[in-house]
Design goal:
Pfam families: PTR2
Low-confidence stretches: 1-18, 692-709
Protein name: Solute carrier family 15 member 2
Strand content: 15-25%
GO molecular function, one term: symporter activity
Structural class: alpha+beta
Keywords: Membrane, Peptide transport, Protein transport, Symport, Transmembrane, Transmembrane helix, Transport
Shape: elongated
CATH architecture of the largest domain: Up-down Bundle
CATH class of the largest domain: Mainly Alpha
Number of helices: 17
GO biological process, one term: protein transport
Helix content: 40-55%
Number of domains: 4
């Protein structure tokens, strides 16, 4: 079959339409198979990369939690600002097909740059940050630019009479999005955590596989090129809307008091623009006015990949038969969407109608907001319990101190000017207590009473750091050793451990991937992280021979100190827990995901349907752009709060829940004054006017023709 140019019309276009290959003799064009596969790969690429993004910022670029959250949401926001640019390019310049091709190439380049930035051997930390930011900007332009084009391009492939097939295509298209999301949010965290490269988590692979999927998406889309219907750019209605509104504002501004009053400010554009266009813009503005409170919902919704993922890193991820990764919990939303949509459509909504409750689209959206607020209340309750195992970092002018008494009897430690309580037991470390410092650094004297003898220990402290004071015997004398502690929990759920050498010889141990050289004389090794697990048979080597040491379970997020001592059987490891393990199971996040997904079904899907039904046919793209901008501004809200508020996490969650409830009340009041319209009535109204104008024109022509005769 020969190719026909995009702008061919008439019989050529009809002939091409009739001979378009279909799937298995149905009314589904073969071309949509390429589009669906393309969308699956692209969504896998996007969500797979985004799933590990927060942990990448935290552990690879070594940003703090607030900066990581802010950049995550800045990127998400940019992804929803750029669709407006993509729509302008497609409708005004290149058309949908070429826009998808060119911006997909930008998309691929962004993924490649992002993957290269995750290779530790490429440049220094500044290079990694620069490449990461550049890659994210390119990805945002790529994914955002093609977002308004792909679904619409798929719909263009169908004949006008195949309405049911087109509707089913959009369902299949939506399923491919969620399938790509579920698989990617399961697979890429595995690639990150279970595959080790360059001595740590393999972020280069976790970003590289999504890059490869985006290349496949581009290749598949190009492969179907000969089968597509490619509509030429027809001009962007969004530009016409902006021009009309600008003209009306300018005319209204320049009008004098003596000019005729207009019923609506847009009516000032009647001299240049058609009444139909003006009426359509009025309808759209009424809907856009309702959009103003909506960003707050997205401010909560998009925290699944940032704050909720960070919360998961401080939880117990053991499900018995398998260990979940903190960034894998995000797949629960996409999975629940696939389950909830049919349940709501075929169960919940019909049941509500049977109860004779008039649940209008705007009421559904308000209920969706309440569900999202409840999700953050649930997240607050989880966060309050999660923080119980966290050692709060010392503030400015403070240090933290615990005492490890390795002597053979009770010791009492007093630091003049502090509220430090005496230590009474050998078995467990002293809980961390706060020490007030006059400045950044301070030297304090600790008085240690042991077996009737008093020993003074000179200790040097630096603000915002935590320390352990280790007490041990040398003959009848007590000795002091001050060591700096690691109190921050691992963001990946690993355990931290260190060893104290109380054995009469130097020892070498390998625990997981970490190697420890333990010197005798109560020397303390640096803290190192190891993967969570049972370590019951650790080999311990010395000049006197090799021994097996039982370290037991090294649990999620805990920090341990092991004192290696001699015993009749060889070497004994006395275990002390400096920072408690994560004792809240990650399954407790399931209620908040269930509530938020229920809110998404009632808010997001209903909102799209409402916008579609209330918009004139040629204005649907304008409302789609407005809808996507609410997502963008929602992420901006999170960015501002994360960087500016400086609140405790549970307080921040509660703040977002409260704000959404307030916004829901405002939205409900606005919705109460909204009158639903039938967009088709606009066609009928102006069709009658056009017929009347045509009739008048024909009569005038007939009159002129008669007079000429």
């Amino acid at each position: 079959m020969g190719k026909i140019k995009d702008n061919d019309l008439g019989s050529k276009g009809e002939a091409r339409a009739k001979h378009t290959p279909t799937l298995c003799g149905t009314n589904y064009p073969l071309s949509i198979a390429f589009i669906v596969v393309n969308e699956f790969c692209e969504r896998f690429s996007y969500y797979g990369m985004k799933a590990v993004l927060t942990l990448y910022f935290l552990h690879y670029l070594h940003w703090d939690k607030d900066l990581s959250t802010a950049v995550y949401h800045a990127f998400s926001s940019l992804c929803y600002f750029t669709p407006v640019l993509g729509a302008l390019i497609a409708d005004s310049w290149l058309g949908k097909f070429k826009t998808i091709i060119y911006l997909s190439i930008v998309y691929v380049i962004g993924h490649v740059v992002k993957s290269v930035g995750a290779i530790p051997t490429v440049g220094d930390s500044t290079t990694h940050v620069a490449l990461s930011v550049l890659g994210l900007v390119l990805i945002a332009f790529g994914t955002g630019g093609i977002k308004p084009c792909v679904a619409a391009f798929g719909g263009d492939q169908f004949q006008e009479e195949h309405v049911d097939e087109r509707r089913k295509f959009f369902s299949i298209f939506y399923m491919s999005i969620n399938a790509g999301s579920v698989l990617s949010t399961v697979i890429t965290p595995i690639l990150r955590g279970d595959v080790q490269c360059f001595g740590g988590d393999c972020y280069a692979l976790a970003f590289g596989v999504p890059a490869a999927l985006m290349v496949i998406a581009l290749v598949v889309f190009i492969a179907g090129s000969g089968l597509y219907k490619k509509s030429p750019p027809e001009g962007n209605i969004l530009l016409d809307v902006c021009k009309c509104m600008g003209f009306a504002i300018k005319r209204r501004w320049r009008s004098s008091k003596h000019d005729i009053k207009k019923a609506h400010w847009l009516d000032w554009a009647e001299d240049k623009y058609s009444k139909r266009l003006i009426q359509e813009i009025k309808m759209v503005l009424r809907v856009l006015l309702l959009y103003i409170p909506l960003p707050m919902f997205w401010a909560l919704f998009d925290q699944q990949g940032s704050r909720w993922t960070l919360q998961a890193t401080r939880m117990n991820m053991d499900f018995g038969s398998f260990i979940l990764k903190p960034d894998q919990m995000q797949m629960l939303n996409a999975l629940l969407i696939l389950i909830f949509v049919p349940i709501f459509d075929m169960g919940v909504y019909p049941l509500i109608r049977l109860c004779r409750v008039n649940l209008t689209p705007l009421k559904k959206m308000a209920v969706g907001m309440i569900f999202a607020a409840l999700a953050f209340v649930a997240a607050t309750l989880v966060e309050v319990n999660v923080t119980k195992t966290v050692v709060e970092p010392p503030h400015a002018g403070q240090s933290l101190l615990q005492v490890l008494n390795l002597a053979e009897d009770t010791a009492q430690v007093t630091i003049p000017g502090s509220d430090l309580q005496p230590f009474q037991s050998y078995e467990d470390p002293w809980e961390y207590q706060s020490l007030q410092l006059d400045g950044v650094n301070k030297t304090l004297t600790a008085e240690v009473e042991y077996e009737g003898h008093l020993t003074n220990c000179t200790l040097f402290f630096t603000e915002r750091k935590a320390y352990s004071l280790i007490l041990y015997n040398e003959g009848r004398n007590i000795q002091c050793k001050l060591v700096e502690d690691h109190i921050e929990k691992s963001g990946s759920g690993d355990a931290f451990l260190r060893f104290v050498g109380a054995y009469p010889a130097d020892l070498n141990l390998t625990v997981g991937s970490a190697f420890f050289n333990v010197s005798t004389g109560y020397e303390v090794t640096p803290n190192k992280s190891v993967e969570r697990g049972e370590y019951t048979d650790v080999e311990c080597m010395s000049r006197q021979g090799n021994h097996k040491v039982n370290l037991g379970l090294l649990d999620f997020g805990a920090s341990y100190t092991f004192v290696l001592k001699s015993d009749p059987e060889g070497i004994f490891a006395h275990k002390m827990e400096d920072v408690h393990a994560n004792n809240i199971n990650i399954a407790w996040q399931i209620p908040q995901y269930v509530l938020l997904t229920a809110g998404e079904v009632m808010f997001s899907i209903t909102g799209l349907e409402f916008s579609y039904s209330q918009a004139p046919a040629n204005m649907k793209s304008v409302l789609q752009a407005g809808w996507l901008l609410t997502v963008a501004f929602g992420n901006v809200i999170v960015l501002i709060v994360a960087e500016g508020a400086g609140l405790e996490q549970w307080v921040e969650f509660l703040l977002f829940a409260g704000l959404l409830v307030v916004v829901c009340v405002i939205f409900s009041i606005m919705a109460n004054f909204y009158t639903y319209v039938d967009a088709d009535q606009l066609d009928k109204m102006f069709q009658d006017d056009e017929k009347e104008n045509l009739k008048k024109g024909q009569m005038e022509d007939a009159y002129l023709h008669t007079t000429k005769m």
